[in-house]
Design a protein that fits this description.
The protein is about 70% helix and about 0% strand. By secondary structure, it is mainly α. The protein folds into two domains: about 5-85, Tetracycline Repressor, domain 2 (Orthogonal Bundle); about 90-220, no CATH class. Helix 2 (about 50-60) packs across helix 3 and helix 7 runs antiparallel to helix 9 (about 190-200). It is elongated.
Length: about 220
């Protein structure tokens, strides 16, 4: 066997390997463009109003290409959710647990949550709105509920367990509460935090045993 033949075979193998590698890179890039285009449309018009045609146009591909990469709505939503969370990770409730004073802990949590709402208002608003008409978003509603159950658990630590207090913390930390304050008042973030803390601390404990606090594992 001649050396020239061996060299030719090696060159062919290297070319094939390079071609496969470049094709894989191209496919990954196309998939990323589709995800980025979808996320942008979700933020602009919402998941329910985002069409495959609009995604394809924004990503610079044809509709069949979108379907080839994401045959199901659930798969596309999952990829978009992962991309969004990577860009905008929500505050970690566990990081607040190290603050011993309940009011200081609450203020820290509200500051981080309200900053997060400011940065993600359009997407959060659209997803919450469209969840009512788009069953595929239900899983993200469950994740949302689980997240705020963890928020409440951390913020209730060191306070007397009480239904009214739990409700006040739920109200104070909700996106809808922040949205109402930011849109209908001139308080700013510091003022919104002070108002939310005042609401929580102004709650009169209830002794109504007919409405016990729901254990975390039963909240759905």
């Amino acid at each position: 066997m001649s050396n020239s033949f061996i060299i030719d075979v090696r060159e062919m193998t290297e070319k094939r390997t390079y071609t496969k590698h470049r094709r894989a890179e191209s496919e990954a890039e196309t998939r990323a463009h589709i995800v980025e285009a979808t996320v942008a449309l979700h933020e602009e018009v919402g998941p329910a109003r985002t069409t495959i045609a609009a995604i394809a146009e924004r990503a610079g591909v044809h509709r069949p290409t979108v379907y080839r990469h994401f045959p199901t709505v659930e798969g596309l939503l999952g990829a978009c959710s992962g991309h969004w969370v990577e860009l905008h990770p929500p505050p970690d409730p566990a990081s607040w647990a190290a603050v011993p004073d309940p009011d200081e802990r609450l203020r820290l949590a509200l500051d981080e949550l309200f900053a997060y709402y400011e940065a993600t208002e359009a997407m959060t608003r659209n997803v919450l709105r469209d969840a009512a008409v788009m069953p595929e978003l239900a899983i993200y509603g469950d994740q949302f509920s689980d997240y705020f159950a963890a928020v409440a658990e951390v913020l209730l630590a060191g306070r007397a367990a009480d239904t009214m207090l739990e409700a006040a913390i739920t109200l104070a930390t909700a996106f809808e509460t922040w949205q109402t304050i930011s849109q209908r008042t001139a308080l700013g973030r510091a003022g919104a935090i002070a108002l939310a803390v005042a609401v929580v601390n102004g709650v009169t404990p209830t002794t109504d045993t007919t409405t016990p606090i729901i254990p975390k594992e039963r909240r759905r």
